[in-house]
Write a structure and sequence with these properties.
about 500 residues; mainly beta; 18-stranded antiparallel β-barrel; about 50% strand
């Protein structure tokens, strides 16, 4: 395995500091946000992000090699997804990973009366890195030049009514069920149609999107097209696969989101999502009908900000011989208080819970593992990305300060546990880490992180973060069951610079 190269991180740091020098601020000329030309208005945009990151003892790579990653998909005779079909096959164990990456975006929006057309090209690629850095970068597969956004928006002058069609980013509420995941190397955008309506203090949005398109088509395994047979788990061949869902309609996501702004201290978000998955399904989806109903209460008044959210999930999943019922739930809350103390001292507390499976290997048992659909990966649960809003118990607190306008710091602690100790542990990228049928401990571990921000020139933001995860008995049991040893801790750090214009 390639060892970390300190020169890469030194170069990234030198680049960030040179871009942030005071002389750069003195030479900068503010760029216009829009350029009128006749009856048209042009709004160009540019973004460049350079990041170096390092992680020790990764939890989601090495040992057992899962071939699929759907949160609701269980292979035959286990509560884990299908894995590589060879009893002795294990991927290498990595003691550390590092990567230097870049992400550039170039966009243009054109307005003419009630019509807006926009396009954003994105080039995301690794500069250098150690073996196995694909999981370190998480999110969608593939790198290189691609189309991040391309849509047509028709709206009234006050945007009380609008319609948008094409590839676009979508974030609802805090992003726990539907988010962009901008932290990742390749953030999420949806090929969707959206309709928005506003009346007084009520905003309503409707969504229909195509999701999970696999460039490889149907790969067999769970939910294979045409009732073929495939492998359900390592070392098993010819395992019959579910044939209860036959239509070849692909995967879609439908949703409705309404926000009722009653007064500053109370706003109510109501969300309904329906995800319909049919073969051919992508690697992170399994044939199913999933329905989620979510309510969120939030407010902001005199430095106090809070959000309380609850979700209930139901539906059916294609299983072996019949459809499997789905019934799961989740909740989360967060509150922050910005005081009048020096440095804008801000205190925060957060907690979350999501139901998990009980480790049952019955392919027809009710599935109780909560699936967060398309969540914001980070920093929803910290910068390390070690767990998702699925089979989760989380409680934590943080403190933030801004000693100067250009400098900020955030220190946080989180306790992380499993709602069901025999259930599956899933990363923030919805990658299966594993499960242990003999685990009796709820404790995954304790996470401590610190994030520092520097912005001496408005277009340039520099951020550095360090995270330490101390593994508990539950985490060690699951990692050992996945042939990844029993690490006592994991370190994670990154340094990034983001340049935006205008």
């Amino acid at each position: 395995m390639t060892r970390p190269n300190p020169s890469v991180f030194a170069a990234a740091a030198a680049l960030a500091l040179s871009l942030a020098s005071p002389s750069a601020e003195a030479q900068a000329t503010p760029l216009p946000e829009s350029i009128p030309v006749g009856s048209f208005t042009f709004r160009p945009s540019f973004e460049l992000r350079v990041r170096g990151e390092f992680r020790t003892d990764p939890f989601d790579i090495g040992g057992v090699n899962f071939t699929r990653g759907a949160v609701l998909e269980d292979a035959y005779g286990t509560n884990l997804p299908p894995r590589f079909d060879a009893p002795t096959y294990m991927t290498p164990i990595y003691s550390s990973q590092w990567a230097a990456t870049s992400r550039a975006r170039l966009g243009l929006a054109v307005d003419r009366g009630p019509v807006t057309a926009a396009i954003v090209l994105q080039d995301a690629r690794p500069i250098a890195g150690s073996t196995g850095t694909g999981v370190l970068q998480s999110s969608q597969l593939g790198t290189g030049l691609g189309l991040f956004e391309a849509y047509l928006d028709v709206h009234r002058k006050n945007r009380r009514v609008w319609f948008r069609l094409g590839r676009q980013r979508v974030v609802w509420g805090d992003g726990r069920l539907l988010g962009e995941s901008d932290f990742t190397q390749r953030p999420r955008s949806l090929d969707a149609a959206r309709l928005g309506l506003s009346w007084k203090n009520i905003d309503v949005e409707l969504l229909a999107a195509l999701i999970g398109t696999s460039p490889l088509g149907s790969l067999g395994g769970l939910g294979a097209a045409g009732g073929t047979t495939g492998s359900g788990s390592a070392g098993s061949t010819g395992t019959p696969v579910p044939t209860t869902v036959h239509p070849q309609t692909g995967s879609q996501l439908y949703g409705a989101h309404a926000v009722f702004r009653i007064f500053p201290l109370l706003a109510i978000d109501v969300t309904a999502l329906a995800r319909i998955v049919r073969p051919p399904a992508a690697l992170d989806l399994t044939p199913s009908d999933t329905y989620v109903f979510d309510a969120r209460f939030s407010g902001d008044y005199r430095g106090v900000r809070y959000a309380v959210e609850g979700a209930y999930e139901l539906g059916r999943i294609s299983s072996f011989g019949a459809n499997r019922d789905l019934r799961a739930f989740a909740g989360a809350a967060r509150v922050t208080w910005e005081t009048a103390l020096p440095w804008h001292l801000t205190f925060g507390a957060a907690g979350a819970y999501a139901s998990g499976d009980n480790g049952s290997t019955d392919p027809l048992a009710v599935q109780t593992r909560f699936d967060p659909i398309l969540p914001e990966e980070r920093p929803m649960h910290g910068r390390m990305g070690l767990y998702a809003w699925s089979n989760l118990i989380e409680a934590g607190a943080d403190i933030a300060a801004r000693p100067a306008d250009a400098f900020s710091v955030n220190l946080g602690y989180r306790f992380v546990g499993l709602a069901d100790p025999k259930g599956r542990w899933t990363s923030a990228s919805l990658i299966p880490i594993g499960a242990s049928a003999t685990n009796e401990s709820h404790i995954l571990g304790h996470q401590i992180d610190a994030t520092f921000g520097l912005r001496v020139w408005d277009p340039l933001a520099i951020e550095a973060s360090y995270g330490l995860f101390l593994t508990g008995e539950g985490a060690q049991n699951i990692l050992e069951a996945s042939s990844r040893g029993r690490p006592e801790m994991q370190h994670f750090a990154y340094l990034q610079a983001v340049l935006r214009a205008p």
